[in-house]
Specification:
Radius of gyration: 20 Å
Structural class: alpha/beta
Oligomer: single chain
Number of helices: 15
Helix content: 40-55%
Strand order of the largest sheet: 3-2-1-4-5-6
Strand content: 5-15%
Amino acid sequence: MTLTEQIETIQPLCAQSMEAARRRFRELALPLGSLGLLEDAAVQLAGIQRTPRPVLDKRAAVVFCADNGVVAQGVTQCGQEVTAAVTENMDAGKSAVCLMAARIGIDVFPVDIGVSREVRGQRIIRRKLMNGTDDFTQKPAMTREICLRALETGMEIAALRAQEGYQVLCAGEMGIGNTTSAAAVTAAFLGVPPEVVTGRGAGLSGEGLARKTEAVRCALALHCPDPSDPVDVLSKVGGLDIAGMAGLYLGGARCGVPVVMDGVISAAAALAAVRLCPLAKDYILASHQSAEPAGRLLLDALGMHPFLTAGLRLGEGTGAVAAVGLLDLVLAVYHGMVSFDDAGIEAYQPLT
């Protein structure tokens, strides 16, 4: 089945389950709408799982690891060797996302979709398509064929996790230079100047930021990515991790599994997924607003409101993992709270 054929099988959320969830919240002995965005998320989960009793008992973080050839332009503080080192650290369960995920019972699946060297570890999912993308200031980041394979890889991994019974996925990435790729993808989709969406990433100096902005400007001028063709954008100025995450969002939507978005890089991937299939948006939950300049712009373009505004900029899916903890809390109330009738309390009424 082609990518297009798979996308065409994605269905709208279950309206009946969502209405039942809204009714449940109205019956709980709480002020109306008092849990805010978390109530909206619980209703969304009901629609995604097609049941008024959504559960997130089995959950996973899928972290796509890949290098970006644009590091050759001096757009990062460290070199590509860090991508491989952190990927192997994930395999050992010692990276930041692994430690956070272990605390709240989330399994972490690192995926080598394009690390520049072979990585060691038993738990790494091996789907390498290239030894990192090409330097997009010189040539397209990847071919259209490889980009499609990256999207399909993400969809495949989502389907495998769904078959294993996972009820929610966190989208994560690891790749030195990938904030540069995310900035280029964002600028291409939104039609904004590079300086508006390009940030300091992992601590660039002012001089480094200037080089990074110029690299994005050069790539956009050289390749003229077509914003109406998401695969064109991803293949010319994207990253393998971004394309893989875009596929994860599409695969989650196809399998009826919610995917929690992390920061600016996964948001750029989410925008690509939604441009490929607008229905996919309803299966994505926004965790936080990234400290990167493109963070707010991407959330606005997606029409999403995050749970957290904490200045996070670590990546790896850490913000998404943190958001699952909040979802646990709202579902505890949703399933366990007494109703107004049970408590013998007069129900709140909506007032104008």
